[in-house]
Design a protein that fits this description.
This protein is an all-beta fold and about 375 residues long. The chain has a domain of about 250 residues: 7 Propeller (Methylamine Dehydrogenase, Chain H). It is built from one helix and 35 strands.
Length: about 375
C-alpha cells in the first residue's frame, strides 16, 4: 500500500513568498522561477506539451492550464462529482485535449477527458477493483495508453486503452499478456505520476516499484504491431532501501532515435526521511534480448534527499531530479548529482516543476551550474 500516495505531506521547509513582484523582479528557488498558480491546492501532476502549453493537476479536483508559457495559469472547470478527488496524473496533447487520473481506493480512482480546453469533462473510466488504487497513467501516442495500479489479489492492476482513453481493458485479457505478480509487500507510489513511462515503440511501457522490495518492470513487444508480453527478462531487482515508505518512485527515459535502446533513470528514497540522500539508478539501453543483463549504474554522489520525480533536459544534456527537500542535476548519467535548490517539489515535466500549496516554477536553464 503506497503510504506516500495516501498521506498529504506536511511542509518540510519554510516556503518563501512567491510570484511576480514587479517588472524584472522574480522570486526564484535556485534556477526555478516561481509562477503564480492562483490556487493553494497541492499540485501533484504536471505535463508540458510544448509551445508554451502545459497542464497541471492536484487536490480538490484542481486542474490548471497555461497557453503562454506560464505567464497566466487558468483554473479549469472541476469535472462533475470530482470536487474531492486527488488528480495525481495528467496527460495532454495540446491546449484543448487532456486526460486526468485521480488516485484513491476503489471508485475514487477515475479517468476524465476534455477536448475543449477544460471547459467540460467526460468521465471515461472508473476503477472496477474495490480495493484497487491507481498510481500512474501514461500514453505512448494519442491512442495507446496504460494505467498501472497497486496489486489486486497479488497481481499488479494494469489496464490498456487503444482509443485515446475512451475504453480500457485489463492487460491480461488473453493468453498473450501476463501481468507480473507482486512480491509480498511490493507496491507502487503515486507521487507525481512518474512511476511509469512509455520508453518507445518496442517497449510499450515500464514501471518501478517499492515497499518490501524495488523492481523495474519493462513490457516488451515482438514488434510495434504485436501485443506486448511479459517474460522473466523484463523484471530487474533494484537496490533501493526497502520499507513501506521506501523504494523507487520515479522513472524517466532519454529519447533515442532507436527506442529499443532508450536509457532510463530511476530515483526514489524514503519520503519520511526527505533529507536522507538516496541513490539513483541509471539503466543504459541495450538490445531487447539482453534486457535482463543491463548493468545498472548507481550514483556515487547521490541526490541530496528523497526524490519523487526525474526528467531528461535535452538542452542542458543533463538529468534533473526533484523531491520534497529540493532538486538536483547530473551531467554524468547519475554518477554525481549537484544540488539546485531546497524547494518543496513533487512532480516534474520540464521546464516546469510543481509541489504543495499551489507551487509552480519554471526552469531557467541559464542558471544551471556549469559542468
Amino acid at each position: 500500500m503506497p503510504v506516500f500516495a495516501r498521506i498529504r505531506l506536511l511542509p518540510l521547509i519554510a516556503v518563501a513568498a512567491w510570484g511576480v513582484l514587479g517588472y524584472g523582479q522574480q522570486v526564484r528557488s535556485g534556477p526555478w522561477v516561481m509562477e503564480s498558480s492562483g490556487t493553494t491546492a497541492g499540485l501533484r501532476g504536471i505535463h508540458s506539451v510544448g509551445g508554451g502549453v502545459a497542464w497541471a493537476s492536484g487536490t480538490d479536483g484542481t486542474v490548471l492550464r497555461t497557453e503562454d508559457g506560464g505567464y497566466v495559469w487558468q483554473r479549469c472547470a472541476i469535472p462533475p462529482g470530482a470536487e474531492k478527488l486527488d488528480f495525481r496524473g495528467i496527460w495532454a496533447w495540446d491546449a484543448d485535449t487532456a486526460i486526468i487520473m485521480s488516485s484513491g481506493t476503489g471508485d475514487l480512482s477515475r479517468i476524465y477527458k476534455t477536448t475543449d480546453g477544460c471547459s467540460h469533462w467526460k468521465l471515461l473510466f472508473t476503477n472496477p477493483d474495490k480495493e484497487g488504487f491507481w498510481d500512474a497513467m501514461v500514453f505512448q501516442d494519442r491512442r495507446h495508453g496504460y494505467l498501472v495500479g497497486d496489486p489486486v489479489n497479488g497481481v499488479f492492476a494494469i489496464f490498456e486503452s487503444r482509443d485515446g482513453g475512451a475504453n480500457w481493458a485489463r492487460w491480461n485479457v488473453d493468453d498473450k499478456k501476463h501481468p507480473p505478480k507482486a512480491q509480498p509487500g511490493e507496491t507502487l507510489f503515486a507521487a507525481g505520476n512518474q512511476a511509469a513511462i512509455t520508453p518507445g515503440n518496442n517497449a510499450p511501457f515500464a514501471f518501478v516499484t517499492g515497499g518490501a522490495g524495488s523492481r523495474l518492470y519493462r513490457a516488451e513487444a515482438h514488434s510495434p504491431f504485436d501485443a506486448a508480453f511479459w517474460s522473466s527478462l523484463c523484471a530487474r531487482l533494484l537496490e533501493f532501501a526497502s520499507g513501506p515508505t521506501s523504494g523507487a518512485f520515479a522513472i524517466a527515459a532519454r529519447p533515442s532515435s532507436d527506442p529499443t535502446y532508450s536509457d532510463l533513470m530511476i530515483v526514489g528514497g524514503d519520503y519520511r526521511k526527505p533529507n536522507a540522500p538516496s541513490a539513483s539508478a541509471f539503466v543504459p539501453g541495450v538490445p531487447r534480448p539482453l534486457i535482463g543483463h543491463r548493468k545498472i549504474q548507481w550514483s556515487k554522489q547521490p541526490p541530496h534527499g528523497f526524490r519523487s520525480a526525474v526528467a531528461w533536459d535535452a538542452d542542458a544534456k543533463a538529468w534533473i531530479a526533484a523531491g520534497t527537500n529540493g532538486s538536483d542535476v547530473s551531467y554524468d548519467d547519475g554518477k554525481t548529482w549537484t544540488p539546485l535548490d531546497n524547494g518543496n517539489w513533487i512532480a516534474l515535466s520540464l521546464p516546469w516543476v510543481v509541489g504543495p500549496h499551489g507551487r509552480i516554477a519554471k526552469l531557467d536553464g541559464s542558471k544551471l551550474p556549469k559542468r
